[in-house]
Amino acid sequence: MKFGMINSMNRLILALPVVFLTINSAEAQQGTNSDAAAMSRVFGEDIVRQNGRTAVAIARTMSDDPTAEYEYLVNWILPPYRPTLLRIDGYFAAADPTPESRLWRLGGEVESPALELIRVAKRAKQLDDLFRRLSELPDADDTQQRRKVALLALIEMARGRMDSANKLGDKLYELVARSNEPLAERWPELLFTYASHQVPALKDVSADIFEVLLPMQDSVPMSALGLHLQDIQARLEFSDSERLRHWHPSARATASTRDAGHPNTRWFASDGTVRCVTSHDVDYLHYQIPLAGNYEVEAEVSLIPNQNGVIFVGGQWLSIAEGAGLMRGDYHSVHGYFPFQKKPLPLPDTYLRYRTVVRGDQVTTFCNGREVDRREFGYAPWLALRNGPGNRGTVRDLQITGRPIVPEKVYPLLEGARSWKAYQDDADQRWATTDDHANGFITGKRIENVGHTSVESLAHYHRPILEGGVIEYEFFYQSGEYSAHPAIERLVFRLDAKGVRPHWVRDPSVRMPSTSTDSSPDSIPLRLKENDWNRVRLTIQGDQLQIAVNGVDAFQHTLIQRQRRLGLYYVGSESKLKVRNMIWTGDWPKSLPAPQKQELASDVPEFLAGLETMQEHTRIDFTKPIDRTRFDTPRSKARSYASPSGLRIEPDVLPGFSSYFVGDRHRISGDFDATLRFSNLTGSAETGQADFTLRFLDEHGNRYSAARSYRAAGEELAAMRWMYLGKTKKVFDSRKTGDESREGRLRLIRRGDTTYALIAHGDSDRFHLLGTRAVRDPVSTMGLRIEASRMKAGELSVVLEELVIRTSPPGSKELDPRVNALERVTREFRHRSIVASFQPTTREFAEMIHASVTESGIKMTADHDSALIGYSKALSGDFEITVDIGTLQLSDDSKFTIGLDVGDQPNKAELTLQPRDDNGLRITAQIPNRKNKDNNFQSNNMDIVDLDAVRTLRLVRLQRTIFFVCKGKTKSKVLGYADIGMEDIRPGSIQFTLASESQMSSLELEKIEIQSANP
C-alpha cells in the first residue's frame, strides 16, 4: 500500500490506523478480530474513532454488495471484540468531493459511520436487525446509554416510527442534560439534532436538546463544528426566507474552508431586514446590478455583538469598532483598525444609521451623521453585504438612491488583485494586477524550487456569475512558459492544442492528485497562437457554458454548480500567467427599482402615506429677504447674516440665554408637514447646551420639537423634544439619539392626533423617525418656529436654506390611518371576557394581593404599600386589555399610583395615573427606552395628559404596535403608540396595581376585559 508524504506529525499519527482499517476490512467480515483488537490496544480507542471518514470510504467501495457493506459498518460501530463498545462519532466532509457528484451545495455536510450504517441498513432491508442488535447491547454507563439511545432514535426515524423516535428523543434529552462531557464528545446528540431538527414531528425535542448544546458553541466558534451548530440554530429559529431577486449569497470558499467541511452560507430576509444566519467563512450577499455614476447607499446596520452589519461599496467595506474607530478591508483581506482622530462616535444599543455617498471616483461614508471615511476608489461597480466568520451580520431598510447608472459591461481586472482571491491557502502573493492595459492586466508567478511536485494556482473573482452573459479576455500563450485557463469554481477548462480538457481541482483531504481528462470528444483542436495573445469567450445561458477560443466555438458544457465564481487557473510549478482586457457583458437588469420598491427597503411608514395630497401652505427661501408681514424674527442676544446659501444665525456668546427664531404668524389647523433644510451647522457645549429646533406650540402652550442639539462633554444628538405646560408645573421630556449631521433637514408631521419628528442627513430623501407625541390642539398663531439657542457656555451657528409647510386640503379627514385601524381591528376581535362575576375562586388570576371581591367589582386597598391583580394566562398575537375604574377613595394627603402593565422588559408597556395638585389626574404612557449604566431599563414617557376624571384604561396591540388609550367622562384619547414586538405575553405579566406612599387609598374595578384575536 502506498501513502503520500504527510508533513504534520499529528496527521502522521492519525494516518496509522488507516493501515489497520484497510487490512482489517476483509478480516472483520470473516469474523477475525484479533488484529483489530490489538491495533485498538496499541493506538488507543480515541485514535481509532477518528478514522470514521476512512471507514465510510471503505464501506462505499462495497456498495455493489449491500449485505457486505452493512456487516462491515456494523463491525465498525459495534466491534465484536468489545461487546460494550459503541462508536458514534462524526466528521465534516467537503461537499462535491468528486467530479461525478451533483454540486448543488458549496458547503460541507455532517457525516458519520452511524448515519452511513442506517442508510446502508435501509437499503439492505436490515433496519429491524440493527435495532435488535442495539437493543441487546448492555448499558455500561450514561455515556454508553446516550450513544445507544441516540442511534436507536435515528433508526426509528429511518423506519418512519416518529412516535417512538420522539419518546427516545425525550429519553436522550434527559441523558444529555445531566452529562458533563465537552462538546467534542457530544456526537450522539449532535447527530440526532442534525438529522431531526427539520422533521416536524421531532422539531420540539430536537430544539430542547440543542438548547443544552448551544452554550458550548463559544468553545469552538470558528470551527466547522461551531458553524454547523450555528446552521442548526438558524434552521430552528428561522422559517423560509423571502425570495430575493436582486440579492444573491456567496461564500469566499477556499481549499481550507471546504476541506474543513464548513456549512453552506445562508441568509434570511424578512420585512426589509436581512441577516446571515449561517456562515461558511467570509460571506457576501451581492447586489446583482452593477452601479456607476452618482448614488447613495443608506441603511440601518446592526451594532449588536456578533450581529454587526457591514456594507461593501466602492471596493471596500468598513465597520464601526466599538465607536472608537473603523475596521476596514476589501474582498481579499482586512486592512486593519483605524481610530477616529476626534472623540469616539456615540453608539445606540441596536442599529446605526449608515450612509455612503458616491460621487465620481470618490466615496464618503457617514455614520449617525458624522463623516467617518472619505477616499478615492477607482473602479468598483459592485455593492454587497459582508459577514465575518461565525457572525450573524444584520442590515435593515437598505435603499440605493440618487442617480445611479447601470453599465452594460464591467471590467473585473480593473478592480485590482484585491478583488480576486486565491483558492489555495497562502497563495495570494502569486497574483498581481498592473495598469499595462486600459481594461486591466493580471499576472501569476511561477513557483520555483518545488521539484517534481505539481503546484496548482486558482484565483476567483469576488462577484459570482448570477445571470447569462458573455465574459471575454486575452491570455498570453507560450508553450512551457505562459498559460491561462478559465474556471467556474473548482472546475477548470484546460486549453491546449488538442482541445478543451475539463479538470477538477481537488481539496487537501481527498489525498489524491487533481483529475483531468483527455480533451473532450465534444471539443475541437485549438489553434493557439504561440508567443502571442489569444482570445477566450465564455458564453453562459442558463446552465449551458459555451467556450470559444480565438473566435472559434470549441466546447460546450452543462454547469451544475450553484455558486459560480469566475476563476483563472495555471500550474504554477510549470508556467506563468498573463491575462488582460477582461470584459463582462451580463444580462443583469438595466435599471434599479424605485427606492421604496427595492427588496431590502422597509415598508413606507403609515404616517407618511398620503402626504402627497397636502397643499403648499408656506415656502421660505432664506437666500431672499424674509417677508416680515408674514413672519416674525424676534431675537434675544443673537446675530443673523444673509449669504448666497441662506440665512446664517448665531446666538451671541454671552452669559445667560440667547436665541434667534423665525415664527409663522398664521394659525395652522389639521394635518401638516413642515420641512426645514439647513447646512453648515456647528456648535459646542462644554458646560451648557446649544439647540437648533423646528417646533410648534399648540393653543395651550405645549411645545413639540425636532431638534439637533449639543450637550456637555461633547455630546451631539437629534431629538424629539416636548414641553408640557400644566396648571402648576412644566414637564420636559425628550427622546434622543446620537447624531452629528452638519447638513440635512428637520421635519415635523402631524397626522390626526399624533405628531412625528424626523431628521434626514445631507441631501438624502431618507428621513429617520426621532419620536412621536399625541396632540389634538391646533397650532397657535406664531406657533411654528425655527429657533437657534444657547445657554451658559454653549455655541451654535447654522445656515437656514428653506422652509416648506404643507397642509391638508379643506374638508379632508384629519385622522392618522393607524388610529383608524385601531378601532376597526378591535371591533373584529372575538370577544372573551375574563371576569364576568368576579368569583374569588377564578383561576384567571395568578395573584390577588390586597384585593377582594365585592358586589360591584374588585376592591383594591393600599396603605403605605401596594395592591395587585395579575392575569394567569399567556397571550399571543393581537389583543385589547380594558379596565373600567369605578369609585376611587383617597385621604387628603394621599400620594398614589394606579398602573396597568403588560409584558416584560425590554418590551413592557405601562399606563399610570397619578394625582395632580388640583385634584385632577395625570395619565402617563411609558415604554422602555434603553439600559442605563446599571444595565436597568429606563422608561420613556410617550405622553402625559391631564384629565379631570378617568373612567377607562386600554392597551391594544395590533401586530407589533401597542396603542395607549384612556377615556374620560365623554371621549377616548389615543396617548400614543410604539413598536414593542410580537413576543408572547407570559402568564402573570399582565398586572393592575394600586400603590400608596402615605395614607390608605382604595378603588373599585368595575370590569376587566381581554379581547384577543388568538384566544
What does this structure look like?
- The protein has 1015 residues and is of the alpha+beta class.
- Strands 17, 19, 20, 22, 27, 28, 29 and 31 form an eight-stranded antiparallel β-sheet that branches. Strands 32, 35, 36, 38, 43, 44, 45 and 47 form an eight-stranded antiparallel β-sheet that branches.
- Helix 4 (52-60) runs antiparallel to helix 5 (66-77) and helix 11 packs across helix 12.
- The longest helix has 21 residues, at 9-29.
- The N and C termini lie far apart (70 Å).
- This is Protein containing DUF1581.
- Residues 1-28 form the signal peptide.
- Residues 355-427 form the DUF1581 domain.
Q: Give the averaged pLDDT, no decimals.
A: 82
Outline the biggest β-sheet.
8 strands, antiparallel
Rg on CA atoms, Å: 35 Å
How many helices? The count is 14
How many β-strand runs? 62
CATH architecture of the largest domain: Alpha Horseshoe
CATH topology of the largest domain: Serine Threonine Protein Phosphatase 5, Tetratricopeptide repeat
CATH class category name of the largest domain = Mainly Alpha
* Total of domains: 5
Shape: flat
Low-confidence stretches: 1-33, 97-105, 511-515, 830-841, 930-943
Distance between the termini: 70 Å
Strand % is: 35-45%
What's the oligomerization state? Answer: single chain
- Helix and strand composition category: alpha+beta
Q: Helix share of residues?
A: 10-25%
Keywords: Signal
Pfam families: DUF1581, DUF1583, DUF1583_N
Domain DUF1581: 355-427
InterPro entries: DUF1581, DUF1583, DUF1583_N
